């Protein structure tokens, strides 16, 4: 007598062929040509019931392997760590989020633009080595293209520096579409350094004392292989002049922060300020 799986296979094979004229019930599953007796008919009916049960059974599902723990590893402290890869040696590392913080008029924008030109050309910046030229993008919510072009031309001092890519965004960094569009722009153009002027202006008036004010720094940190340098404002009072304005989360999300001192001198002759390391 055939087993239920064998019988199922035979029935499936029969289903694939044109159906002949049905045989009498007692002879349908028998090849010997002999009529089946009552016991054989009952046994056959039981097998048919098993086959129908197999047909109605849900498909077998492969179970996922049980969850495993984190793939931790022990650090080899006898081996020297990998050296820091610098964009500007000793100041700005590759794949980092940085803040330039100061009061209005403290030369933050001039400094950012000067940095951008040096990084794009691969020339030292104020004596700090830059190992190679990089593709720089300036996102400007503050000055406008005409003023930026004029300042960069003045900073070039008649030389022929590498171009700094420029864009004046029409939406806020808080907009849902901004960061996917920026990520695509970075990938399509091979951008490795992004300069942002400024965190407050590019956040469309969001309240700086909220956690959401730090979202642009969080999103920037999620883009691998790119160095971000943001301009941000310090507190307005003398007591807060050395503090990062807004939520403490803004400070927490930055890898490096430089604070600008109050400028000294005159715009007619020379302005000087100090760029002081505040967090590293």
Core attributes:
single chain, 280 residues, alpha/beta, seven-stranded mixed β-sheet, two-stranded antiparallel sheet, 7 helices, 29% helix, elongated
Word description of this protein:
With 280 residues, this protein is α/β, with parallel strands linked by helices. The protein is built from 7 helices and 11 strands. The chain has helices at residues 4-15, 38-56, 108-121, 145-156, 178-189, 215-221, 248-253, and strands at 86-88, 92-93, 97-102, 136-140, 165-167, 193-197, 227-233, 256-260, 264-266, 270-272, 275-279. The strands form 3 sheets. It has a 7-stranded mixed sheet. Strand 4, helix 4 and strand 5 form a beta-alpha-beta unit. Helix 1 packs across helix 2 (38-56). The longest helix is centred in the N-terminal third of the chain and has 19 residues, at 38-56. The protein is elongated. The protein starts with a helix and ends with a strand. 24% of the residues are buried. The model is unreliable at 21-30 (pLDDT under 50).
Q: Give the overall silhouette.
A: elongated
Provide the helix percentage: 25-40%
Structural class: alpha/beta
Largest sheet: 7 strands, mixed
The count of β-strands is: 11
Mean pLDDT: 85
SSE pattern: HHEEEHEHEHEHEHEEEE
Strand order of the biggest β-sheet? 5-4-6-7-3-8-11
How much of the residues is beta strand, in percent?
A: 15-25%
List unreliable stretches of 5+ residues: 21-30
Query: What is the overall number of helices?
Result: 7
